[in-house]
Recover the amino acids of this structure.
């Protein structure tokens, strides 16, 4: 029993779990980090990272076998030959789609920190005030000034490159030097600024890719192969950043193949005692005990762990007393934007593959702008010259055709929107006990859809993209509204929200479960609203803040 | 590839969707229980090499045959094409030979290089017109019924697409016909370009 006891348990090893492990171990706690999937060792485990395009038999594409084996993953770009092993095998881990929800998961050490898009933005008080101001959901229990120092802290460690823009609605941070925009992007940015008289801004994306050596990590080599795992450790991931830091303390135990099935609740102390796990390889059950439990299993699975921890005190699961556990599921809706041709610039090109694009932060419903929907959206995009897979109408086959294709084509510029989804109680996950996964565990039923506010917003997202590109001089601008199915943003949030009132929220302002104060949830589940910015940096900041609070409370004897 | 790369692909003004891939945006509804036997012989590969070489011949840089594009095509058709497209491709190989017989009284492998170019140029035009009409018809059908099945692709469109993909993503194509740098080391968003400079492979 004794060697199953730690100071703290961290459930999950993705972006927020890695941060929890780092912070808690650095503060002297003995920590066990439980990961349901296999280990992927930094560098050594990135088996495809140094392959060239021709090393892949289908050149990165998807086979019919893959399409059969991955009925969910195939719905979007993640199904591909180059990092197939980083994605969950759908057949082993089914879920129930009450309405279609594309759930793209990574079950291994590092979780989706290995495959994430690395865009890193701060939320602002426009985001954190919005729910209260508009009477939507519940009020965030904290404000930007409480989070700001923790954003500083997270950015300084993770290494975020970007430019300072002085915007109140997208606060600046502790940035490494920004990456370059290319010639066309620079001109487009200037024209958008002119045309919209400084109310819309376009600049280089803020990304967790290092532009200089940082904390012993090598800078980005501009291969644009991040999602295969970086042998240079040049982008933030659990493997490159938080895991080595946690290990350096000597206080960390990492246990892969550990599916946490429930948090063990002690009715007498009204706290968690520990967790029960199922070994994913042997199917044996083990218990681990600790004074603190951090739940970082990703938004939907953190809700699953809490729900599956039902007791006769709370039949709906640990943290379910308010009734909001599992509700208010949010994502960012995308798949809408525009692209066009930028004539000229034939004497300009670029060197290197920049794993980053441009960012246009939200401008709708800010300051003097008022729309017939709430909140807003940002855009990401880029300009580039066309390659060999373009159409050359005047040529058919043969030597001239081949020679033409060996030169770059016209410049094109495209942008796609990331829109905020409001929290709705009826967008939710529940336990589906009629269906079991590979390990005989009940699965999640997901019931989530875009509603009127999001659908109205999408019209602006499509039209504005076209309008801005045309204002920037683009020709043949085509806009699209493709597929906004929830889940495709891969930004699941909200299923155990923070709030001010235990009657309407699962967590308090320090991510503490109201019903069990030594349990903390600091991944996407905790989000009270979604904002429209990529959320991972906020999870890092919230996790570091909650860990600091937890250790102080522990020392005071309050946990 | 990540989201940004996806956007780039959409931004490209291409002649149509990538056949068999369902790679971008659309979910694949075509999941046959059994994949057709799709076995190709060494003769088939030689034949496909010659078609590919006619599309992308060796010039001052390597051609499709140097990059073993025939072999690549068979792998892609066998592994990545749905059964229906596999059949179109196989039958297309015959149809192409028949077209050659009809025009030059001999099979594709036996006609002169000039006749090969003439034949494939004609087929290229034919397939482009076909795909254009197909896309219009499919769009019309989709307007009436969201789940309407797409009509078949032209076999030559398949052969040309696979030739381009196979060649330009091969070592020969990427490093000699195009420019490839495995580890660029830095990014410069604005460098001078002069006509004749090669495009980046990736």
């Amino acid at each position: 029993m004794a060697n199953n006891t730690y100071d703290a348990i961290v459930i999950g090893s993705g972006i927020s779990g890695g941060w929890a492990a780092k912070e808690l171990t650095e503060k002297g706690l003995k920590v066990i980090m439980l990961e349901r999937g296999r280990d992927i060792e930094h560098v050594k485990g990135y088996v495809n990272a140094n392959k060239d395009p021709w090393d892949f038999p289908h050149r990165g594409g998807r086979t019919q076998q893959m399409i059969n084996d991955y009925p969910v993953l195939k719905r979007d770009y993640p199904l591909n030959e180059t990092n197939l092993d980083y994605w969950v095998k759908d057949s082993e881990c089914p879920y129930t789609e009450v309405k279609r929800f594309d759930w793209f998961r990574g079950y291994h050490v590092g979780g989706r920190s290995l495959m994430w898009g690395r865009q890193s933005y701060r939320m602002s008080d426009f985001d954190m005030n919005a729910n209260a101001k508009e009477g939507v959901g519940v009020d965030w229990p904290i404000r930007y000034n409480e989070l700001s120092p923790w954003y500083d802290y997270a950015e300084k460690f993770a290494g975020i490159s970007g430019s300072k823009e002085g915007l109140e609605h997208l606060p600046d941070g502790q940035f490494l030097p920004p990456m370059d925009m290319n010639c066309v992007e620079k001109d487009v940015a200037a024209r958008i600024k002119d045309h919209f008289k400084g109310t819309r801004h376009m600049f280089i994306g803020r990304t967790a890719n290092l532009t200089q050596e940082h904390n012993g990590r090598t800078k980005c080599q501009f291969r644009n192969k991040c999602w295969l795992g970086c042998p240079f450790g040049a982008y933030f991931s659990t493997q490159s950043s938080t895991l080595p830091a946690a290990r350096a303390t000597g206080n960390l135990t990492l246990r892969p193949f550990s599916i946490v099935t429930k948090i063990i609740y002690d009715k007498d102390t009204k706290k968690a005692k520990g967790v029960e796990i199922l070994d994913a390889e042997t199917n044996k059950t083990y218990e681990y005990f600790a004074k603190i439990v951090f739940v970082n299993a990703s938004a939907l699975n953190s809700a699953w762990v809490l729900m599956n921890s039902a007791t006769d005190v709370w039949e709906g699961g640990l943290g379910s007393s308010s009734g909001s556990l599992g509700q208010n599921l949010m994502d960012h809706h995308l798949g809408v934007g525009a692209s066009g041709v930028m004539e000229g610039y034939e004497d300009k090109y670029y060197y290197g593959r920049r794993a980053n694009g441009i960012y246009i932060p939200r401008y709708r419903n800010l300051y003097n702008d008022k729309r017939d929907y709430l909140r807003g959206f940002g855009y990401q995009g880029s300009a580039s010259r066309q390659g060999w897979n373009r159409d050359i109408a005047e040529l058919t086959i043969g030597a001239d055709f081949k020679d033409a294709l060996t030169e770059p084509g016209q410049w094109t510029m495209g942008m796609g929107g990331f829109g905020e989804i409001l929290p709705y109680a009826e967008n939710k996950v529940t336990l589906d006990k009629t269906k079991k996964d590979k390990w005989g565990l009940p699965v999640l039923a997901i019931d989530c859809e875009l509603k009127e506010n999001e659908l109205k917003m999408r019209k602006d997202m499509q039209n504005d993209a076209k309008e801005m590109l045309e204002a920037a001089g683009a020709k043949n601008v085509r806009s699209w509204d493709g597929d906004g199915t929830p889940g495709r943003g891969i930004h699941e949030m909200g299923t155990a929200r923070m709030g001010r009132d235990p009657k309407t929220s699962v967590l308090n302002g320090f991510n503490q479960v109201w019903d069990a104060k030594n349990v903390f949830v600091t991944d996407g589940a905790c989000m009270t609203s979604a904002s429209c910015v990529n959320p991972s940096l906020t999870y890092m900041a919230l996790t570091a803040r909650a860990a600091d609070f937890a250790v102080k409370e522990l020392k005071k004897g309050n946990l | 590839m990540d989201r940004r790369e996806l956007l780039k692909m959409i931004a490209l003004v291409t002649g149509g969707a990538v056949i068999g891939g369902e790679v971008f945006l659309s979910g694949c509804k075509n999941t046959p229980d059994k994949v057709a036997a799709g076995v190709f012989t060494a003769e088939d590969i030689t034949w496909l090499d010659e078609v590919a070489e006619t599309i992308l011949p060796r010039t001052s840089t390597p051609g499709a045959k140097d990059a073993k594009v025939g072999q690549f095509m068979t792998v892609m058709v066998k592994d990545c094409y749905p059964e229906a497209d596999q059949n179109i491709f196989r039958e297309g190989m015959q149809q192409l030979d028949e077209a050659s017989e009809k025009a030059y009284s001999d099979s594709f492998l036996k006609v002169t290089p000039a006749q090969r170019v003439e034949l494939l140029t004609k087929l290229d035009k034919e397939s482009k017109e076909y795909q254009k009409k197909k896309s219009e018809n499919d769009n019309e059908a989709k307007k009436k019924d969201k789940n309407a099945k797409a009509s078949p692709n032209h076999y030559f469109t398949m052969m040309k697409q696979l030739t381009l993909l196979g060649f330009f993503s091969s070592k020969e194509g990427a490093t000699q016909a195009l420019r490839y740098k495995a580890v660029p080391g830095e990014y410069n968003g604005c460098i001078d370009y002069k006509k004749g400079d090669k495009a980046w492979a990736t």
Notes: Chain A is about 20% helix and 20% strand.
